Amino acid sequence: MDREERLARARAEVAAACKADGKPGFLARLLRGTWQVIAKVGRFLLELAGEAVFEVLVAVLAIGLFVGVIALVAWGFAVNPIATTVLVAGLAVFLVFGVLDLIGGRRPGRLGAILTGTGVFTVIWLGYVFAYL
């Protein structure tokens, strides 16, 4: 079979697959539609897997930070209980001021931004920690 015969046979198969109005036949439409559905499902599963991996990374980071803070407080309390208690109380007051600043109203300047940012970060972080514990 030479090249011309193969080309003629391929053209005949393509013409048979297409209708007279130039639209692809049922089988061609079915195959194209099936492939599109498979591609959409694949993209969905890839996005779902990416979100799951990101969620696991965020959970590990939140829990790890929580464990690190607890370990530092335990070590500090073993070394110097008074200084650790004063530091934890000071941080708690700082965070309370940050949350109150966020809820009540903004303080002008850098201190208000630091208080608000620290309070928001802590609230979000504790939300993640309590969601995964």
How would you describe this structure to a colleague?
There is one protein chain. The protein has helices at 3-17, 26-79, 81-104, 110-132. The chain is an all-alpha fold and 133 residues long. α2 (26-79) crosses α4 and α3 (81-104) packs across α4 (110-132). The longest helix has 54 residues, at 26-79.
Rg value: 32 Å
- Major sheet description: none
- Helicity level: over 70%
Query: What gap, in angstroms, lies between the N and C termini?
Result: 71 Å
Which spans of ≥5 residues are poorly predicted at pLDDT below 50? none
Can you give the mean pLDDT? 80
Topology:
Elements: H1 3-17, H2 26-79, H3 81-104, H4 110-132
Helix pairs in contact: 2-3, 2-4, 3-4
In short:
The chain is mostly helical and 133 residues long. It has helices at residues 3-17, 26-79, 81-104, 110-132. The protein is elongated, with a radius of gyration of 32 Å.
Looking at this protein, list some descriptive labels:
single chain; 133 residues; mainly alpha; elongated
